[in-house]
Amino acid sequence: MFGAATASYQIEGAAQGDGRGPSIWDTYCHTPGLVANGDSGDVACDHYHRYPQDVALLRELGVDSYRFSIAWPRIVPDGSGPVNPKGLDFHSRLVDELLAAGIEPTATLYHWDLPQALEDRGGWRVRETAERFSEYASVVGAHLGDRVPRWITLNEPWCSAFLGYSVGRHAPGAREGRGAPAAAHHLLVGHGLAVQALRAAGLREAGITLNLDHNLPATGSPADRSAVTRADTLHNLVWTEPILAGRYPATEEETWGESITGQDFRRDGDLELISQPLDFVGINYYRPIVVADAPYRESDPALRVATDNRYEEVRLPGVRHTAMGWPVAPATFTDLLVGLKERGGRRGECRRGRPRQRPGRLPARPSHRAAGRDGHRRGRPRLLRVVPPRQHRVGLRLRQALRHRPRRLRHAAADAEGQLPLVPDHDRRAAAVTALGQSVGRPRESQTAT
User: Where is this region: Disordered (predicted)?
Assistant: First the structure.
């Protein structure tokens, strides 16, 4: 499958138009000094007004599927209470435009734009936000579920919980110790409640998208290997253990210490809610992370943030790095997927005539076949995240977009095809994707980290 994806705040604009309420990203971007150049999503790509042209561009690219996110503050401006019909109408028109163009829509319920009114009442630190999220999911599921076959509850909840409530580099910009683990848990509860709401609306497929990291020790020392355990817990296990195995990470106390002990935000029945069967688990993968043991950055536990976990990142040698400073090592994606499969398995069960996941099991779907050892997936992958015009917080200077790389893509595919086959031909596209993966940054055997 050849697909494209965007995020509502990054592309829509019309931040104050047609009844949309403020989100935490509106507040964050308009706080002086937090975003490079003072950039914001006030206008962005003006997708709210230009979506017919944008869908025409998608059709020109030849994509089969488009993943968009729904702006919660455009649907329920205050996070709870009255629904904004103009917000629903916009997303309904977008879905109809996609279907008319022969493009399958996939909807993400939450791509970080929490209504500011809910943040003012505690945000994801408190359970109320998860409950309001379920109500919002019910509204949009009932309105769009007859035309949108695939639904994602949360996109990259790690960013919402830890960049938002610990590092402070994403909205709402908090730097806390106990608040971030509480936010992570309530995001998981919100995911579980939203899945229930979507199922109640009769929707076909529901899942979640996680940004997982492949963590490597800087050396073979026991201290660095323990640092990898803490990094895995922070970035991966906090999500995969509850969702796939129905349990909390055994290493959470080692990772968070006093930030997790004595917590009171978990309730009986939460794990059953969080680990209910899913149709898919999406994985966004950016880079491997090399970690080394290190002391706490903050010696006072009362002031320590949740991402201060006694390790530091070090540069992966022998590979090139992106403008973001991230190493280009595609073979590590293979290692991540294989490791996830080995920990969780892939056996599914059948309910209501469809494959379903058991706790501790990945869905039995062809799109989750393990990657080939040469660093690209076998089968038909959903390719690339396309056209977020700004990377949150760094402003407009760094772009991640397919439209900004046509020459490179065509060059990568030239040997196999002569041109990038942006036409409805899956086998030719897969060959082009393979050529792209082979031409960009594959580590030589002597460079592959172990």
Answer: 344-387
